[in-house]
Design a protein that fits this description.
Length: 268
């Protein structure tokens, strides 16, 4: 594919993913992963290798992106740090486990898992419209740790920060308001992404067929292009999130997940 067109596609993806990260409390992997996968295929890369590279690079981009978004949400009082910190540390270990497992699975398995996961959660979000603007979250440290570890595994397996699953869990199971769930998810995903990307770096080290400028399954050139746009746009997305009501934000969130999941199933 023409390098200029690839660059343009990544810039547009970064702008969109960064905005989505701040808006929905997700890592943006559900946008960055399929675009990178398609670009790698067009460049002649093996399907499974392209999948792992897309997952690893997306996770790497999420770390600085979610830091930017979490700080912006924190300034608006929308982060529950008491839950986010234990959840996040548990997610590091879950991410290592999930990323290691993903590095040994065929690409079609990873893509199908990714797509079905977000479609199921999107449907659940629509069924469970949660409009409470100021809610008292439930849960304990033990529950936060269990959720964090599970989210970390999903993060590593699906090449996403885990927010597409964590936000619905916080809203539907723990009674968070949508805005609080988005902010808390942003903070947690900093840790889960770090754990998962570490596994992709380790398991991709020395693998043949990867781009010249890469560390394991992380393409440094693509990382730089995406991060340059996702980081500032995450803060813009946070501002947008707080202009929506919790109910409307939840509906838009679910619609985006269904669209992306369907696109990944078709591509698979």
């Amino acid at each position: 594919m023409d390098p200029i067109l690839s660059f343009a596609a990544l810039i547009i993806t970064g702008i969109t993913a960064g905005t989505a990260s701040g808006l929905f409390g997700v890592g943006g992997g559900f946008l960055m992963t399929p675009v990178q996968y398609w670009l790698s295929l067009l460049g002649g890369m093996d399907s499974t290798l392209a999948t792992r590279l897309a997952f690893g690079t997306s996770l790497a981009v999420m770390i600085p992106t979610m830091i930017s978004g979490a700080l912006a949400h924190h300034s608006r009082g929308a982060v529950d740090w008491k839950a986010a910190i234990p959840m996040g540390f548990a997610a590091i270990f879950g991410g290592l486990a999930g990323g290691t497992l993903a590095s040994h699975l065929p690409g079609i398995v990873l893509r199908t898992f990714f797509a079905l996961l977000i479609i199921v959660m999107a449907v659940r979000m629509v069924w469970h419209i949660h409009s409470c603007p100021v809610c008292e979250p439930r849960g304990s440290t033990v529950i936060s740790i269990a959720i964090g570890f599970f989210i970390g595994i999903i993060s590593g397996l699906a090449g996403i920060g885990g927010g597409v699953l964590l936000v619905p869990v916080l809203v539907m199971l723990l009674g968070y308001s949508m805005h609080k769930a988005v902010g808390t998810s942003s903070a947690c995903l900093i840790f889960s992404s770090a754990g998962a990307v570490t596994a992709y770096v380790i398991n991709g080290w020395g693998v043949a067929g990867l781009p010249v400028y890469s560390i394991g399954y992380v393409d440094l050139v693509t990382f730089a292009i995406l991060a340059a746009t996702t980081i500032p746009l995450a803060r813009f997305g946070v501002r947008c999130a707080h202009t929506f009501s919790g109910r409307n934000l939840q509906i838009v969130f679910a619609a985006v997940l269904i669209l992306i999941g369907a696109m990944m199933l078709v591509s698979g």
